[in-house]
Every structure is written in structure tokens, then in C-alpha cells.
Automatic annotation (TrEMBL), chain A:
It comes from the Bacteria. It comes from Mobilisporobacter senegalensis. Gene3D superfamilies: P-loop containing nucleotide triphosphate hydrolases. Pfam families: ABC_tran (PF00005). Keywords: ATP-binding, Nucleotide-binding, Transport. One of its GO terms (molecular function) is ATP binding. SUPFAM superfamilies: P-loop containing nucleoside triphosphate hydrolases. The keyword ATP-binding applies. Residues 13-246 form the ABC transporter domain. This is ABC-2 type transport system ATP-binding protein.
Automatic annotation (TrEMBL), chain B:
It is a multi-pass membrane protein. This is Transport permease protein. It is found in: Cell membrane; Membrane. InterPro entries: ABC2_TM (IPR013525), ABC2_TM_bact-type (IPR047817), ABC_2_transport (IPR000412), Nod_factor_ABC_transporter (IPR051784). The keyword ATP-binding does not apply.
Length: 322, 269
């Protein structure tokens, strides 16, 4: 398990002032604690400049934290980065990080050699990876002739070449079309759930985080501001309930009656009629009352359900509050 | 050691595929020193070399004298360019992946230098050997000093390449070294004019380039028939240079990793 406690990172940058340069301290990460268990997908969210990339760089040992504790399976990752490097890999979005003039096979072979993988195992693993990412038959094709999606698939294979226990995915679907993105999400899910890898994912696509992540950490200005599952985050953020009620043959009389009854239960209730039905925003749970009212009044319910806020709404709300 | 060799071989292969993908490159790598060599040769024809104070230059062997200079220079010059090329790994993001892996950094740098060395000199070397055979009456050499010197030059050139690679790793702003080391190395190492004819200030500058000792030793061995004993001072200096280079490389590799982990400049380009 990865345990990071109170990680901080301060960069020292030189700023030109006329002929002189001055050193300035920039605190990219102020205080971040997180955990990643094997078999889980953990999301790292934040607005631009929140410290996501710096956090990933620290967790992958490419950056040394200025302060904090970081252990991976009880190994002190700050003191023994080489031990950590054997267990991890990183996949980033975009078309960099592969050798374009080499073939797909040569790329994987090269990176496999850097991890001192025995040749027979590496050969077998590369075959399996080509199968996994759907690049079978393209092994000996130079990468420069690949489409963006194919390059990204190769990136995934490259990130798995050392069979890492923990995988860091930094915007892995950026710029990819819907089909390839979906495939990638399936791969990620498979890696976590079937191959028991611990995965940290950053993405600007909320749907992706919502679909994949078991747990989410939300960063703002280098600080961890919220954490939890999608549902926990929504519950913490949105204290009111949203319902959609759709009744057959809704008339103004029905709506007026509904408003009167609901206002008597919760004076703060907000009710509005829209094309898809009646939207009800209440302080407390109303599902029982709504079905009871419809039964008593003899209204036929077409649909009635609680509308859970999507992750995007939650993040937007949290962003407004901070 | 097994891991070191695996990385070394993988890096050599990758370098070959990545940078020497086209046969045209071999021609360009050969053509430039060849043109320079021809120009210098005809420039020398305007002087009366019989009056030269340098013991191993005569009117008859000037072509071999210059050829040795250019041949040995190609060992070292190509490495400055390859180190500069190595900095592109930073731009493509692959350098970050190399540092993400637990591999031996020295093996990567050595593999890169060795690949560049062989790829860059092979045509020039073949041409030079052909010319030496053609002008064999001007050659006065013993086999053992030739072999020993060749091995020393190979080791020194590879380490020089590693050293330059390690400096290019240190900072994205190391490109100035390309300007500093390319032409001055050719001028001050005695490729064209022997260093013993230099004024004192230029002699001081020539001391810092390993190429100076490599050229001087090769000329003495091939043109004067010097034995290992005769060139013992040059061998001794070369061994000192090799030790200094190895120590510097190890220190720089260590510092680079610490520095990049502090600054995160591995991804800045």
C-alpha cells in the first residue's frame, strides 16, 4: 500500500530582475496525504495548478518532497527511490515518451531491458501486452506511422512492461477519441480489479473519474481539500435532495396541489415544472412522501427517482466554496 | 553487472535505430571531415614543410599527418554532437522514463556514447585505413603500440562521450558546450597544426582536451615508429585523464539525479 503523509514540495526558481536574478520559493504542494491500496483506482482531482502533477512526480520518485513521509509497501520511498522504481510505472497522455523511429516492439524491448527483465519473460510479456492493447500485427511497424490512439495504446503497453504493482496515470485519455478512451478505461479497470494493481489516475474528464475511481482526492492550491467516494463527496457537498417526478397527465391543478402539500412538509422546498417532469429540491428525503401523495391522490407515476449530483456538479460546487 | 550490460546493449541498439536510421547520415558524417581534411591538405601545400621544426612532418607524409589528425578527431567530435542529440531525450520525455526506471544511469550514458562512437567513425576509419595502406611507405609503426594506443583512444573517447552526455543531462542550457567544444577542440588539439608550434596561451588550452594526447600519440606511433616506452608520458597522461573522466562522470551522474529530484528540471526543455 502507498501511504503519503503531509507531502510538501517547494521549488526554488530564479526570477530575472533587470541584470540580476533573484531566487523565489514556490510552494507547489503544501500538504497532501493520500493512500493507494492494491486493486483500487484512486482519483486525483484539482483545477489547473492544484499540484496534481507535482504530487504524481513525488509519488513516482522523480521529485523529492521537501517534507513529509512517503512509504510504499513499508519501504521508505524517499530514502530508497530505486526500490520504489522497480514496483511502479507511469503512463501519461499525449504522443511523447516513446521513440517514434523505433518500431512498437523495439520500444517495449528497450524499456523492458531497463528493468532487467529476463529476455524470455520479456518476449512473452510483450506478446501479451500487444494482445491486451490491441496492437497485435503492428509490432514491427515504426511508431511514427501510428495514429494518436495507437501511440497511446503503445504507451499503456510501455507502462505495463515491467508488470508494475502500482501504476500512475496522468491524463491518459487526453486528446483521444471516444472509442479509444472507452477501451483505455476498460484496460484500467481490468488492471486494478483483475490484476490487483494500485492505480492513481488524474484526468480532466469527470466522467472518467466517476466511472473508474473507488476513491477521490481533491486538491486545490497544493492542499487536499476533500476526499471520499463519489457518493461521499456529493453528500458532503450537496446537503439538499433532488427528485424527478413524472406523472401521467400532469395538470396545473396537480402541480398546485403538490406544491401545497410539499410546502407544508418542508417550507424550503423548491418545485419547478420542466419538460422531463417536476423537479423537487428539498431539505430532507422526500421519496416516501412523494409516493404516498401520488397513491392517495390517485396520480399515476411514470417515474420517480432521486437525482444524485454528478461528480462534475460536486467539483464545481466545491470549487465555488473554496 | 548483467543489468548493466543489458542496458548498455539496449541503449546502443536504440541509439542506432533512433539516430542512424538512414544511410545518408553515414555519408554526411564522413563528408564533413573529409572536405575539411582536403581543404587543410591543399592549404599546407603552399608552405615549405622541409623547414618545419616538427620532427614527424615531411613534405611526403603531410597527407598522413593530417589524416591521422582528422581520423582521431572524428572519434571525439562525433561525441559532442551525440551528447547534443542526447538532450533531445529531454524534449521527447523519454529521459524522464529512463530516470523512472531503476536502471544504471552510467550504462545508459555509456551505451549512448559507444553507439555514437562506432556509428560516426566507421566510414572515416575505413577511409583512413585505406589511405594508410595506400601510403604505407610513409608509415613507420609497430603493431603493439598501435593496438594499445587504439584501445586507449577508444576508452578515452567513450568516456569523453559519457562525460559530455552527463553534462547535457545536468541542464537544458548545456547547448553552449556544443559551441565551445566543437571548433575549439579542432583548433587547439593539434588536428591541423601541431601543438608544439602553439604560443603558450594556446598550449595551455590544448592541455584540457583529451584529443590532444590522442593525436600526438597516434602520430608518434604511426609516423616515428615510437615504442610504448617512447610514448609512456602520453599513456600516463591518458590514464590520468581516464581516471579523472570516470570520477567526474560518477560524481555528475549522482549530482544530476539529486539535482533533478530537487528541481524537477528533467521535464523542462
Amino acid at each position: 500500500m502507498i501511504i503519503a503523509e503531509h507531502l510538501q514540495k517547494t521549488y526554488s526558481v530564479k526570477v530575472g530582475k533587470g541584470l540580476k536574478t533573484e531566487k523565489q520559493q514556490i510552494r507547489a504542494v503544501k500538504d497532501i496525504s493520500l493512500q493507494i491500496e492494491k486493486g483500487n483506482i484512486v482519483g486525483l482531482l484539482g483545477i489547473n495548478g492544484a499540484g496534481k502533477t507535482t504530487t504524481i512526480k513525488m509519488l513516482t520518485t522523480l521529485l523529492a518532497p521537501t517534507a513529509g513521509i512517503y512509504t510504499m509497501d513499508s519501504i521508505d520511498a524517499i530514502k530508497y527511490p530505486k526500490e520504489v522504481k522497480k514496483r511502479i510505472n507511469m503512463i501519461a497522455g499525449g504522443e511523447r515518451m516513446i521513440y517514434w523511429r523505433l518500431t512498437a516492439f523495439e520500444n517495449l524491448w528497450y524499456f523492458g531491458q531497463l528493468y532487467n527483465i529476463p529476455n524470455n519473460i520479456l518476449k512473452k510479456r510483450i506478446e501479451e501486452l500487444f494482445d491486451l492493447v490491441g496492437l497485435k500485427g503492428k509490432e514491427n511497424v515504426p511508431v511514427e506511422t501510428f495514429s494518436k490512439g495507437m501511440k497511446q495504446r503503445l504507451q499503456i503497453a510501455r507502462g505495463l512492461v515491467n508488470d508494475p504493482e502500482y501504476l500512475f496515470l496522468d491524463e491518459p485519455t487526453i486528446g483521444l477519441d471516444a472509442v479509444v478512451s472507452k477501451e483505455l478505461r476498460q484496460h484500467v479497470k481490468y488492471l486494478a480489479k483483475q490484476q490487483n494493481k494500485g492505480i492513481l489516475l488524474t484526468s480532466h474528464y469527470m466522467g472518467e473519474i466517476e466511472e473508474l475511481c473507488d476513491y477521490i482526492y481533491l486538491l486545490n492550491d497544493g492542499i487536499l481539500i476533500e476526499k471520499g467516494t463519489v457518493k461521499e463527496l456529493a453528500n458532503k457537498t450537496f446537503h439538499r435532495k433532488n427528485y424527478l417526478l413524472n406523472i401521467y397527465n400532469t395538470t396545473n391543478d396537480i402541480l398546485d396541489t403538490l406544491v401545497t402539500i410539499l410546502k407544508s412538509i418542508d417550507p424550503s422546498v423548491i418545485i419547478r415544472q420542466e419538460n422531463d417532469g417536476v423537479h423537487i429540491n428539498s431539505k430532507d428525503s422526500m421519496s416516501l412522501e412523494l409516493s404516498r401523495i401520488c397513491t392517495v391522490k390517485g396520480w399515476y407515476i411514470k417515474e420517480l427517482y432521486e437525482q444524485e449530483p454528478c461528480l462534475e456538479d460536486t467539483i464545481l460546487q466545491i470549487s465555488k466554496e473554496v | 553487472m548483467r543489468a548493466f550490460i543489458k542496458t548498455l546493449l539496449a541503449e546502443i541498439k536504440k541509439q542506432h535505430k533512433n539516430y542512424f536510421h538512414s544511410k545518408i547520415i553515414y555519408i554526411s558524417l564522413f563528408l564533413w571531415p573529409l572536405l575539411s581534411f582536403i581543404t587543410t591538405y591543399y592549404s599546407f601545400q603552399t608552405f615549405d614543410l622541409m623547414k618545419s621544426n616538427v620532427i614527424y612532418i615531411t613534405q611526403g607524409n603531410v597527407i598522413i599527418y593530417l589524416l591521422i589528425g582528422y581520423m582521431v578527431m572524428s572519434f571525439f567530435r562525433s561525441l559532442v554532437q551525440s551528447a547534443w542529440n542526447f538532450s533531445f531525450e529531454r524534449v521527447s520525455g523519454t529521459l524522464e522514463l529512463i530516470y523512472l526506471s531503476p536502471t544504471n544511469r552510467a550504462a545508459v550514458l555509456l551505451g549512448n556514447a559507444v553507439a555514437s562512437l562506432f556509428e560516426s567513425i566507421i566510414v572515416m576509419l575505413v577511409f583512413s585505413v585505406f589511405m594508410l595502406i595506400l601510403k604505407k611507405e610513409e608509415i613507420n609503426a609497430n603493431v603493439i603500440p598501435c593496438v594499445v594506443l587504439f584501445l586507449i583512444i577508444m576508452v578515452m573517447a567513450s568516456l569523453w562521450g559519457m562525460f559530455l552526455n552527463s553534462i547535457f543531462l545536468f541542464s537544458r542550457d548545456s547547448g553552449f558546450l556544443f559551441t565551445i567544444l566543437e571548433e575549439p577542440m579542432e583548433i587547439f588539439s593539434g588536428v591541423k597544426v601541431p601543438t608544439e608550434l602553439f604560443p603558450v596561451w594556446a598550449k595551455v588550452l590544448s592541455v584540457i582536451f583529451p584529443l590532444t594526447y590522442a593525436i600526438e600519440g597516434t602520430r608518434r606511433v604511426l609516423l616515428l615508429g615510437s615504442s610504448l616506452y617512447d610514448i609512456r608520458n602520453l599513456i600516463f597522461i591518458s590514464l590520468i585523464i581516464i581516471s579523472i573522466l570516470i570520477s567526474s562522470i560518477m560524481i555528475i551522474i549522482n549530482k544530476v539525479e539529486k539535482h533533478t529530484r530537487m528541481t524537477g528540471n528533467l521535464t523542462l526543455f
